[in-house]
Design a protein that fits this description.
This protein is an alpha/beta fold. It contains 14 helices and 16 strands. The strands form 4 sheets. A 10-stranded mixed sheet has the order 2-1-3-14-13-4-5-12-10-11, with helices on both faces. It has a two-stranded antiparallel ribbon with strand order 6-9. α3 runs parallel beside α5 and α12 crosses α14. The structure holds NADP nicotinamide-adenine-dinucleotide phosphate and magnesium ion (MG).
Length: about 400
């Protein structure tokens, strides 16, 4: 078979530990034999980040902005233990945080749905994609413990010195206080990312806040989404046959439990934090969640939602066999290749990405899977494969499809 051609390189961000091992296997078994893979390679492995004073992380993010599509392996976010383990010059920042700050945008997380790994919510037939706003609110709040009786006010001092005050509460005794904020620009880019992603994946978009109670704060989110939708996306949505649906957060939660899935649920920062863990665990496993960062100017960074699977890596180093699930990392590659194909007009590359995903799903549905899935599957007597054997089994399915 002749290898598929690419036009523009993918930005390849290599990573750490067990996922770095899987990364290499995936390339060797599932990509290089079939695709004349063009990538611009950045090694975000912790050792190389340390050698370059983390410059490589910044360079990779700028490359993602330049080329438009990146695929990222899981990376270690250093803590005190890692500083010691890797003899680091500094406790480098989270690579995902750095990349997100440069690319800007919203993280979309979707479960990979497979027969035999059933969601606990029995009417969920299609994936529910969670879009979490990643700036502000309670994550950038100031808090106070109120020690005694007194008056609390919100005070805004404009650049010209004018003060605006709003009474929070006349305390009769001790209590607590919190002040939080968000930015019009951040809410706008959140809205654009959500509308673009809905169009891109041809799925309905839901958005919910508590605007009936929070008449200024949450209502601003609602208004910004509606204004941007009406002005720039309404016609495109109608043409694509999808809808934008706004409701109250409690109503959204109630409807989600009765829904079939197959839509995007945009959430404010806190709602997204809480609801994404609920949705992902109800769908089965962190190792079956994809994650893509979509920037408001239309750049994409694909990755798995899980970490570097440190515990398995230490077993691997000790020469023991591992059974680490590579599905989300395979889907990061297929997502990036499909998007690259779409942007460059390469339909056979898009077709390859589809087949790679089909082959992965077919492997699991035929009863061959890694240990994490074998523990939760409804398939009887599954065959538990090690990390490498699973990837080789996917290759067999893929060759049959191609
Ligand atoms: P983790 O790597 O997600 O793994 C936590 C546990 O979940 C594993 O020990 C394993 O359970 C299970 N698991 C996760 N992914 C799996 C897979 N693909 N196949 C099978 N089992 C899987 O989280 P962590 O151990 O807390 O973090 C390790 C490192 O990853 C940390 O240094 C952290 O900074 C980094 N991290 C990176 C990212 C990212 O780059 N996006 C995200 C999160 C964490 P069992 O051990 O029970 O088998
Ligand atoms: Mg959380």
């Amino acid at each position: 078979m002749e290898k598929l051609n690419m036009k523009t390189p993918l930005v390849e961000m290599d990573g750490d530990e067990m996922t770095r091992i899987l990364w290499k296997m995936i390339k060797e078994e599932l990509l290089l034999p079939f695709v004349d893979l063009k990538t611009e390679y950045y090694d975000l492995g912790l050792e190389h980040r340390n050698e370059t004073d983390d410059q490589v992380t910044y360079d990779s993010a700028y490359a993602a902005k330049k080329y438009g599509v990146a695929v990222k392996c899981a990376t270690i976010t250093p803590n005190a233990a890692r500083v010691k383990e890797y003899n680091l010059k500094e406790m480098w920042k989270s690579p995902n945080g750095t990349i997100r700050a440069i690319m800007d945008g919203t993280v979309f997380r979707a479960p990979i749905v497979v027969k035999g790994i059933e969601p606990c919510v029995k009417n969920w037939k299609k994936p529910i994609t969670l879009a979490r706003h990643a700036y502000g609110d309670v994550y950038k709040a100031s808090e106070m413990k109120v020690p005694c009786a007194g008056k609390a006010e919100l005070v805004f001092t404009a650049e010209d010195g004018t003060e605006t005050r709003e009474l929070i509460h006349e305390f009769k005794g001790p209590g607590v206080l919190q002040g939080m904020h968000n930015l019009q620009s951040s809410i706008e880019s959140f809205a654009h990312s959500c509308f673009k992603y809905a169009l891109d994946t041809k799925q309905d978009l839901w958005f919910a806040t508590k605007d009936t109670i929070s008449k200024k704060y949450d209502h601003t989110f609602k208004d910004i989404f509606q204004e941007i939708y009406d002005a720039q996306y309404k016609e495109l949505f109608e043409k694509a046959g999808i809808t934008y649906f706004y409701t109250l957060i409690d109503d959204a939660v109630a409807r989600i439990m009765k829904a079939e899935g197959g839509f995007i649920w945009a959430c404010k920062n806190y709602d997204g934090d809480v609801m994404s863990d609920m949705v992902s665990s109800a769908f089965g496993s962190l190792a079956m969640m994809t994650s893509v960062l979509v920037s408001p100017d239309g750049n994409f960074e694909y990755e798995a939602a899980h970490g570097t699977v440190q515990r398995h890596y230490y077993k691997h180093l000790a020469g023991e066999e591992t059974s680490t699930n590579s599905v989300a990392t395979i889907f990061a590659w297929s997502g990036a290749l499909r998007k690259r194909g779409e942007l460059d007009g390469l339909t056979d590359l898009m077709d390859f990405a589809d087949k790679l995903e089909k082959a992965t799903i077919a492997t699991i549905e035929s009863g061959k899977m890694t240990k994490d899935l074998a523990l939760i599957t409804t398939i009887e007597n599954p065959t538990v494969l090690n990390s490498e054997a699973f990837i080789k089994a996917v290759r067999q399915e893929l060759e049959a499809l191609l």
